[in-house]
Amino acid sequence: MSAIESVLVENRVFPPQEAAVKAARISGMAAYEALCRQAEQDFQGFWAQQARDNVVWTRPFSRTLDESNAPFYKWFDDGELNASANCLDKHVGTPVENETAIVFEADDGTVTRVTYKELLARVGQFANALKAQGIRKGDRVIIYMPMTVEGVVAMQACARIGATHSVVFGGFSAKALNERIIDAGAVAVITANFQMRGGKELPLKAIVDDAIAMGGCTTLRTVLVYMRTPTACNMAAGRDKTFDEVLKGQSAECTPVSVGAEHPLFILYTSGSTGKPKGVQHSTGGYLLWAKLTMDWTFDIQPKDVFWCTADIGWITGHTYVAYGPLAAGATQVIFEGIPTWPDAGRFWQMIQKHKVTVFYTAPTAIRSLIKAAETDAKVHPRNWDLSSLRILGSVGEPINPEAWMWYHKNVGGERCPIVDTFWQTETGGHVITPLPGATPTVPGSCTLPLPGIMAAIVDETGKDLPNGAGGMLVIKRPWPSMIRTIWGDPERFKKSYFPEEMGGRTYLAGDGAVRSSDRGYFRITGRIDDVLNVSGHRLGTMEIESALVSKTDLVAEAAVVGRPDDLTGEAVCAFVVLKRPRPVGEEAKKIANELRNWVAKEIGPIAKPKDIRFGDNLPKTRSGKIMRRLLRSIAKGEAITQDTSTLENPAILEQLAEKN
Ligand code: WT7
To answer: At which positions is CoA bound (predicted)?
Structure first.
């Protein structure tokens, strides 16, 4: 049975253990349901109370939700706050200030601890350095950093002075970085000379140099470089400065700048259905509320917890559950620089044992690769380590197949720990559909139920509700505090992408297909319904990869990209390519396929490399010239073609396209 089929018949239910229920903040389903009812009966009152209880305001808000310009919703908008103060200053004078904020484990295993007090001083000093570089409230700053304490310090320091950060994942190419610097109108880039991953020293600053050399970065004045390793890198006089240079003489005290609740805390680029990535803009007040609240609700974080989210700060998960949430909650968290498979695939388990991690949050793709490793090498099986510190496990980024869920439950959680399969998106800011560890009975492969106040539903194209058991489109019918505010510089695209007119223009369309179970009404995400792929939990636009391929103008005439299911990476990229020369076969085809893979890595980043590349004399098209993507998806999967192909000009190309290289 395939993973997809087995999830359809999934009927195993795992109620939370009694002890977990007793200890939890939201204790039992009745408590969860009571919160949902409160939110339904007095939507604004509910959120106003949460915002007062969970956020420190420098100026209290009087308006909770302003819908007058929907879908450009505003939350708490006459209130003022500072995000960094809500993560750091808030703990001063409480027992948290001397607790460890960050346990940093470097690639080579070196461990450093930073207390809340120390982190506040480092953020303050860095914030002063940014100010000395002329960076001001509202300026955009690109952060292109490895997973380090310094990365989090850079984000917090921007927040402290009201600068809007835009973190670009360290695996993105110079071209991708160039586009983001330009789109954001960034005044500065914060980077490192190198990053350490799996024992290798990989360049970052050199990529920044390439990105700037591509031109168009007219707003950029400064590049700040963290010397992660002793290896020198190119430094442009006047433009580039090391951290040491700019930090020298700066005081550790920096008064946080109060900003309006709707002030953009950050922009994070993500893939959509066109070739151009979207700059998802988040607020300060509503976002911060969500980061704090979901740490409490979903992870039930307690003072003695050691939280570890394995996501990179380059993704939204690393924003909400590394850079902001754990600090706002006053938790101790592990930050890991390296990769799960180095020096061997036991690294995660070894680190859980070593740091006595209690709440562990990772992606299905990591779990699947570690299952595979443990199956081939018993030495890296989790049973070799003491994982008894764990009490809650989390999953994020893509649907988790029940097989991986069960393995995680048994071999990592010791059948003791609730698994929270958290569904959310860059756009939602934080969890929206997820089990609560002390309340929700879990079902493998299901993200279960919406958080209180999240009005999630499954509807048809017109926005009409569908009954349980019927597959449809996932929507959220009412706004929520941490929702995307706009697409940076493109409000029209924001409206068009997320609030379709056919549904009334106010319903948030997630872009995922979903179905609710007939018995419990539990949500199960069936995958994207737009041209977005999810490869190892990384979001990629098929159009983006297509544009990258056709930009190799000396070689490529036409390209179409689709996803196909993959046991390890969830989905895999499959590209169908027509060359400007006769269709290659054999060794020649392999050679060109590799050339194209490297080209895509250079244009976007290695994560976007097509796994499969197929060559044809043409692509299957309808009479009006539209590429028949459904047909391509079938070919990619290796399925028999059942669609009507009578309109195809040249049916023989289907055979060509079925050939792998
Ligand atoms: C897409 C969002 C959420 C942060 C990391 C990814 C998929 C995410 C789940 C889950 C099924 C999931 C969806 C979503 N997704 N979590 N628990 N179960 N699917 O953020 O890059 O914005 O991607 O990831 O397809 O739309 P993202």
So the answer is: 197-200, 317, 536
pLDDT of 624 reads 76
Own/partner long-range contacts of 650-654 (Cβ < 8 Å, ≥24 apart): 650/617, 650/618, 653/616, 653/617, 653/618, 653/619, 653/620, 654/620
Q: 55-63, long-range: CB within 8 Å, 24+ apart, which pairs?
A: 55/81, 55/86, 55/285, 55/288, 55/289, 55/292, 56/81, 56/85, 56/86, 56/90, 57/81, 57/285, 58/82, 58/85, 58/258, 59/258, 61/261, 61/285
For 362, the 3-state DSSP assignment is strand
Does the C-beta of 421 come closer than 6 Å to ligand 1? yes
List Cα–Cα distances, 341 to 334, 355, 367, 392, in angstroms. Answer: 17, 18, 11, 22
Q: Which amino acid is at 454?
A: I
pLDDT of residue 99: 98
Q: Is 522 in the pocket of ligand 1 (CB under 6 A)?
A: no
471 CA to centre of ligand 1 in angstroms: 18
Would the pTM of this model clear 0.90, i.e. be above it?
A: yes
Strand ranges (E), 423-471: 456-459
Q: Mind spelling out the 3-state secondary structure of 600-641?
A: HHHHCCHHHCCCEEEECCCCCECCCCCECHHHHHHHHHCCCC
**Would you state the pLDDT for residue 8?**
56
**How far is the first Cα of the chain from the last one, in angstroms, to the nearest whole number?**
28
CB 457 within 8 A of CB 463: no
How far apart (Å, rounded) are the C-alpha atoms in residues 342 and 387?
Answer: 19
| Domains parsed from the chain with CATH numbers | 536-658 (3.30.300.30)
State if residue 396 touches ligand 1 by the CB under 6 angstroms criterion: yes
Centre of ligand 1 from the C-alpha of residue 645, in Å: 34
How far is residue 488's CA from residue 317's CA, in Å, rounded to a whole number?
20
Low-confidence spans in the chain with pLDDT less than 50: 1-6
Whether ipTM tops 0.90, in short, is yes
Point out the annotated binding site for ATP: 397-399, 421-426, 512, 528, 539
Q: Cβ contacts of residue 388 below 8 Å, gap of 6+? A: 414
